[in-house]
Amino acid sequence: MALPGSLPRRMRCSMVVAMLLLLACVPARAAEDWQAGAGADWQALLAKAKEEGPVVVAMGAPIGKELAAAFRRDTGLELQFLGGDSSAISARFAQEVASPNLSIDVQIGGSSELPLIARGLMQPIKPLLKLPQVVDGKYWREGGIRWIDNEGEYFAQGAEYLSFRVFANADKVKLADIHEFNDLLRPTYKGKIASSDPTGSAGGRGFAEAIFSWRGEDYVERFYKGQAITYTKNPVQLVEWAARGTYPIIVGSLQQYVDKFTSEGFNIQYVAFSDWPILSTGGRSVIKIAAKAPHAAAAAVFANWYLSRPGQQLYETLLGEPSRRADLPHKGVPAYELPKQDVHYVGSYDQDYVSKLRENVGKLTRVLVSE
């Protein structure tokens, strides 16, 4: 279902300004000592990277300009950014790494690319990490980098936050009436809920997988089909629907867009459930490197920088997704996103979790969305 009209000019301008203000929060020379303790091999890697040309990074988030500027600032290297829809980026990367026409060095996103490891198409990242402030476990939540692959060396998850969230327009919905997830199944909410497309690779799919793993197939059908959920692949449109009251309850939304609309004065609030499972997600933060990356040294430098304090601070500031690094203050990150220090959360991107349900959930949601 399409939203009539487009975002108001005032809204579009304010979103751009908000992004620039967020970037301004990152110090002009973020974390001067991020390379402290690096040895000769790191300097050799930097020198080799400078000879290769720009590292090509693909990601389904509108942060290319800021990412390139910060990477150049801290390393002196150039970055070429390939952006767009997350699903399209993932599909292009999977196609390219299996062809002789590979142009992408690094892809940052979710867990969709896990099958590429078994095909020998991915480069282990762990051996490429040279910086003490990246490899030392004390700089990370739970004592180390979270690798979502079973080998523990290919796909590094930068961010971690509690999933999967529901938001609602508190001017249209009485939040005091919603305590458990079952409350969303009431007839009064039928036709009033929208979701990020659960057949895609963003928050919508993860939300459907969470319901499936928690309550099973029947529960998924009761929610998506029984409540006549409306879908969109546009993350801005999803939150705008809630803001305008078109669909006052939304699932699978991204925090950065919720933040932008609330900054405009819209009363969009997080809906807490007492019975939601203990799951976490990595958002769009998982970094991967192609096995035959055209700019292999530059890709290795980027991986070290991305997982360093300045790289993760930039990611968190721009996208509103809290990094797993233990040395970041998480300023401006909502409390409901932050994992508790004494709790180990099931990672919804971890390979064992994904392998047990993604195919089945994918088949189910494709049927539900097409009906």
Rg from C-alpha positions?
20 Å
Please count the beta strands (DSSP E, at least 2 residues each).
Answer: 15
Shape descriptor: globular
Distance between termini?
13 Å
How many structural domains?
Answer: 2
Oligomeric status: single chain
What is the N-to-C order of secondary-structure elements (H for helix, E for strand)?
HHEHEHEHEHEEEEEHHEHEHEEEHHEH
CATH superfamily of the largest domain: Periplasmic binding protein-like II
Strand % is 5-15%
CATH architecture of the largest domain: 3-Layer(aba) Sandwich
Overall mean confidence score, pLDDT: 89
CATH level 3 topology of the largest domain: D-Maltodextrin-Binding Protein, domain 2
Main sheet attributes: strand count, strand direction, barrel closure: 7 strands, mixed
Number of helices: 13
User: How much helix is in the residues?
Assistant: 25-40%
What does this 3D model show about the protein?
With 371 residues, the protein is of the alpha/beta class. The chain has two domains: 9-158 and 282-335, D-Maltodextrin-Binding Protein, domain 2 (3-Layer(aba) Sandwich); 162-280 and 355-370, 3-Layer(aba) Sandwich (D-Maltodextrin-Binding Protein, domain 2), CATH 3.40.190.10. The chain contains 13 helices and 15 strands. The strands form three sheets. Strands 1, 2, 3, 4, 5, 6 and 14 form a seven-stranded mixed beta sheet that branches. The chain has a five-stranded mixed beta sheet with strand order 10-9-11-8-12. A three-stranded mixed beta sheet has the order 7-13-15. A hairpin with an 8-residue loop joins strand 5 (146-147) and strand 6 (156-157). The longest helix has 20 residues, at 351-370.
